[in-house]
Amino acid sequence: MDFNKISFRIRYAETDQMGVVYHGNYPQYLEMGRVEWLRTFGVSYKSMEENGIMLPVISLQLNFKKSAVYDDLISVSTKLVKTPSVRIEFDYEIHNEEGELLATANTVLAFMDMKSKRPIKCPDYLLEKIEKGN
């Protein structure tokens, strides 16, 4: 399963006084990567929620290698670790425009029924799209 890549420029508001990206912003970057990964399969968080499914993060691991700074053009690469079941797991790499590795990460999310607040299996329509590769 290949990485899906998105790129964007670091905004001033995302940095501290030294111009370095505040570490608390990285989970948002990972979410941006996941949202776009899903979109490549024609699925959105919004459509899943409209169908009564939510995807809360249940595990987040971040490893910082080098600082991202104001005005850097960074890329977030998102990769599905394995076929989802009740959980869906992603690995990430964040690089700057010079190709330097800034961070690696892993998240695990759970498919949840919005009404019952109970875990459920990955929806068949998403499994089918993943297995087809789009």
Can you summarize this structure?
The chain has 134 residues and is α+β, with helices and mostly antiparallel strands.
The helix/strand series, from N terminus to C terminus, equals: EHHEEEEEEH
As residue ranges, the low-confidence spans are none
The number of helical elements comes to: 3
CATH C-level name? Alpha Beta
Percent helix range:
10-25%
State the strand order across the main sheet.
1-4-5-6-3
Biggest pleated sheet: 5 strands, antiparallel
Structural class: alpha+beta
Number of domains: 1
Number of beta strands: 7
Instruction: Examine the secondary-structure arrangement and name the CATH architecture.
Output: Roll
Ends apart, CA distance between termini:
12 Å
What do these coordinates show?
- This protein has 134 residues and is an alpha+beta fold.
- The protein has a single domain, classed as Thiol Ester Dehydrase, Chain A, CATH 3.10.129.10.
- 22% of the residues lie in helices and 34% in strands.
- The strands form 2 sheets. Strands 1-4-5-6-3 form a 5-stranded antiparallel beta sheet, covered by helices on one side.
- Strand 5 and strand 6 form a beta hairpin.
- The longest helix has 14 residues.
- It is elongated.
Please give a handful of descriptors for the protein shown.
single chain, 134 residues, alpha+beta, 5-stranded antiparallel beta sheet, 22% helix, HB-CoA_thioesterase_AS, Acyl-CoA thioester hydrolase
List strands and helices in order, with pairings.
Elements: E1 4-9, H1 26-39, H2 45-50, E2 53-54, E3 57-64, E4 73-80, E5 87-96, E6 101-110, E7 112-113, H3 124-132
Antiparallel strand pairs: 1-4, 2-7, 3-6, 4-5, 5-6
